[in-house]
Amino acid sequence: MKQFQFTFRDNKAFEKELKKLRQWVRGRFCSDLLIQMFTETADRRRIERACATVGRILPEALYAGCSSNGNIVNGDFSGDSVAVVCTMFEYPTTKVELLQYPMPPDAQESVAETLAQEVGKRPWVKAVEMLVTIRQASMTALCDGLSRIRQGVQLFGGGAFCEDVGGDDVCVFSKAGGYQEDSAVFILFGGEDFYVESFYVTGWMPLGIFMEATKTDGSLLMELDHRPAYEAYYKYLHIRNDEQFFNNTLEFPFLYRQHGIDIMRVPVANNPDGSLTLTSDMRQNVKVRIAYGDPWTILDSVWKEGKRLLEYAPDCVFVFSCAVRRIFWGNDEVGKETEPYQMVAPTSGFYTAGEFLRTGDYVDLHNVTQVIAVMREGEAKSRHSSEDFQRAEENFAGKVSMINRMATFITVTTKELEEANRKLRDLAVTDMMTGVGNRTAYLEKIRALDEEIDQGIASFTIFMFDLKV
Q: How many Å from the N-terminal Cα to the C-terminal Cα in the chain?
């Protein structure tokens, strides 16, 4: 597997790069050629002209792409509006195929069912990349349907976006279905000698106390702790329920557990009654916290994953990173969180409106998250040693420097408060004379067991002692 990445500003430059690629392909065996294009504007005329150029110069190539909030080329943010990633598959057993379906909000379930059927007909499929127009609609029906695709098939991808994070001018396109504004493109990968792995990285840390989602309705979060949901943002961050609410909350997502993993969720709309619209359904009674970005935690996470990839030895790395992460770092610093992957293999991707990933039995839509997919053909051939994989000392500047200092302060004070609360908690449930749990501890344990009985998972024995002195 070989990969070529470039950017272009006009069609003449695009043609020149494609002709160079054509010469390279003709001199080597190529089982499939996939060209992915990511553009910051959903300019239909420009996109269709680019697709026609690919069809004319490389008629055998598959092509697909979407609008984005910015692009990742060679492991760093690209300042150019259009990025092109050309992946050449060299093993004769490797297969790549494109599928594209119109997908208005009420068609999510049928699209997922159709894709599951198509994957079922192709036992060679090992992975599916998704490019989806999200548009503030709940993606729960799509994710639930995709979760039924046969076990072992990895699913990952991103939501199409645009240069303006508050905008809704998005699209996807491919050789299979052309330019569409409410649609999903699926790229199927597989074959005997094709290997793929996918995972996610957050780096955002919990802030403040747990709150309970006391009233929800699908993707509508109505109340937290029996108060209008937006009030949590006003109480802790002084963010008002006005036209700037979306922009002000972007870097402070909700953090909670779903399907056994951490999920972050950014409200995509605030409503007059104080409820918040999310991109996926939230269960009632789930415990929620507000989260914040910590530069050191993020970098520790991506470097840890990058080092792990050394053993996997991928041929290429695809990154689907939330646009919020670009906003958080700024264009000059955002490349710090993709640099480790580029040190392992050619790294490309785009900044998204949401990130899809299958973890275990479930497909989830993430926000403020980095989803990474790594691929190779053939057995692993290590290209780098762990000794070469060293992180340089970071010197943050500007906004990120201030965020880093504030994150350090929050982390230290939070730990101190948690330790103080733990001690107070221990005193509240411990008998001072005997050091064992008191009546409060007993009642809390009984309540917890009662919940487990309701869920059918309780297994316990109770012993009671009365000590007299």
A: 78
> The tokens of 452 are what?
């487990």
Q: How do residues 198-223 score in pLDDT, each as one tens digit?
A: 999 999 988 888 999 999 999 999 99
Query: Which of 359, 108, 133, 138 shows the shortest CA–CA distance to 267?
Result: 138
Q: What is the C-alpha to C-alpha distance for residues 176 and 198, in angstroms, rounded to an integer?
A: 25
Burial class of residue 304 in the structure, from the number of CB atoms within 10 Å of its CB (0-12 exposed, 13-18 middle, 19+ buried): exposed
Structure tokens that stand for 235 in this block = 């109480």
DSSP letter at 315 equals S
DSSP states along 67-133: E-S-EEETTEEESSSEEEEEEEE--TT-EEEEEEEE--GGGHHHHHHHHHHHHHT-TTEEEEEEEEE
378 within 8 A of 159, measured Cβ to Cβ: no
Specify whether the CB–CB gap between 199 and 208 falls below 8 A. Answer: no
pLDDT given for residue 279 in this prediction: 87
In one-letter notation, the amino acid at residue 56 is: R
Q: What is the pTM of this model?
A: 0.86
Torsion, Cα 415 418 419 421, to 10 degrees, reads 160
Which amino acid, residue 357? L
Sign of the Cα torsion 228, 234, 237, 241 reads: positive
Nearest 5°: phi and psi at 5? Answer: -130, 140
Report helix, strand or coil for 288: strand
Widest Cα–Cα separation across the chain: 94
Dihedral pair phi/psi, residue 12, rounded to 5°: -65, -45
Residue with tokens 């530069």: 295
pLDDT tens digits along 128-142: 999 999 977 789 999
Tokens 């690629």 locate to 21
CA atoms within 13 A on the CB side of 50: 28
Q: What is the DSSP letter of 296?
A: H
Token reading at 369:
């998250």
Do residues 210 and 132 touch, judged by C-beta distance below 8 A?
no
Distances (CA, A) of 178 to 41, 118, 163, 455: 16, 19, 21, 48
SS3 222: strand
363-388 pLDDT, tens digit per residue, is 999 999 999 999 999 998 876 666 66
Q: Is 360 exposed, middle or buried (0-12, 13-18, 19+ CB in 10 A)?
A: exposed
